[in-house]
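Course assignment 3, question 2. Fill in each field.
Student: A.L.
Task: Predict the tertiary structure for the chain below.
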Amino acid sequence: MAVAMVTTAVEQTPTIDEPVYVGTAVVYVQQHSLRYNPEHPPLGKLIIAAGPAFAHVHLDPAFVGNQTVLGRHVLYESGNDPWRLMLLARLPVIVLTLLFGLVVLAFARDLAGPVGGLVALALYAFSPDIIAHGSLATLDVPAAGFLLTSVWLLWRARRRPLLYLPIAGVALGAAEATKMSALPAVPVLLLLVVWSVWYARRRPDLGPRRRARLLALGVAAAVGVALVAVAVVWATYLAVDPRLRWATPENVPVVHGLRGIAVDWLPFPEPYRDGMRVQFGFEDTTWGGFLFGRHYHGSLWYYLPVALLVKTPLGMLALWAAGAVAFVTVPRLRSAAPYVLVPTALLLAAAMHGSRDFGTRYALFVPMFLAVAAAGVVAFRRRWAHVSTAALVLFVAVSSVRTYPYYLPYSNEAFGGPSKTYLRLHDANVDWGQDLGRLADRLRQRYPDEKIWLVYKGSGVPSSYGIDASDPRTVPPSKVHGLLVVSDSSIAKADGLLRALMDSSRPIDEVGHSITIFRRTP
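Answer field:
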């Protein structure tokens, strides 16, 4: 997994979100300012900053611009090496992703023994989604991993609550301080705190009064864990700016109703609450989506389950299902179902309710938690079950290795593999701007001295990679001759002029399963 992630990180150019996070991380370190990217709390970007901190990144102190311009300025306009800077920014996330693999191993081993732990670890280590996003300087894997860590520690608190509950609070706070999408899990995790304390202190002869005391103790423990989590959130903001200087940006929307009341009353720093308001503004916006050849406006409630079905190895899907059945039917695993299955279901339901159908990265907790659930298959005491488990794990490994190094556009064999993903999904499922460098190499090697017309969806600057291209949408179609290069996400949503240009051109090549090269002749 480490080899796959590092080599992938070396080869890929910045995805759409990464320059914003990297630029913000540099501002955190050099200027101790919270003014950029308030819609995400600081911790994930502080982790990313650990890499560039060793690179002596140059940033003009007088720079003025929004966060998108900031990212472009840091990577391409300040004399920094974008290849080296992006690799350094990605390495801390890669290390953290590997550490979360050890959490998966430990959690599954606690539940199902050493063999179950190895099954879970194998599914985690070969997960194309985890490899793809764990090799990027983004926030999705850290947030999901911290949540998993918190749940694992709550499971262990059933035996030693005084030791594990405070650490679980730290992990929960880390998740909240990385992405606000972790917040829906908080009520469930606090209920698990109460249950873990009840389990740890239970006695067979408890009377009504002792039960009430035990329940009160569990509630007090939940309050304590919540306070620890809140303290972690505050600490991450103070780590960036000890004086917590903050002025609410003009573009922060006003949030009304119950959501507005909740935001106003949450015990978090003002920049965190303003970030929540920005996120609610995003949720109230109508975005575009693409699913199985259909371009639509708005969101589909079933988008994420379908996308997961396409982008998860078939053997992994089978082991997830079998593991979930084991957690429900096998007596010794049944007590773990609230810790493994319930948070997964709740978070997936919350993500399905979101307005942005942009990719499975919004549900990376699913392959993490269900890798642990899959460990339950070893509880089936049948020889055929063990043989089938080994065969399915091998099938997952082969499917994952075959897609190397193109993990982002992965889809399983039932849907044609990574070369066909663009027919069914778009955006971070396929083409997130990661192949600009590979495109530059391809054009230089196979198509030197040809006129390039480029429609690129991403944050990279083509000229910085030696691509001299024009936008075909800015001239009459009769003038567009030579190579027409189009990002597959742009193909998915193409209409009007771009659609006409593609229909009158001939596809001749593809790059990374995310960019298509057409030949357009007079």
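Instructor remarks: The beta strands are 288-291, 294-297, 452-455, 469-470, 482-487, 506-511, 515-520. The chain has a mean pLDDT of 95.
Grade: pending
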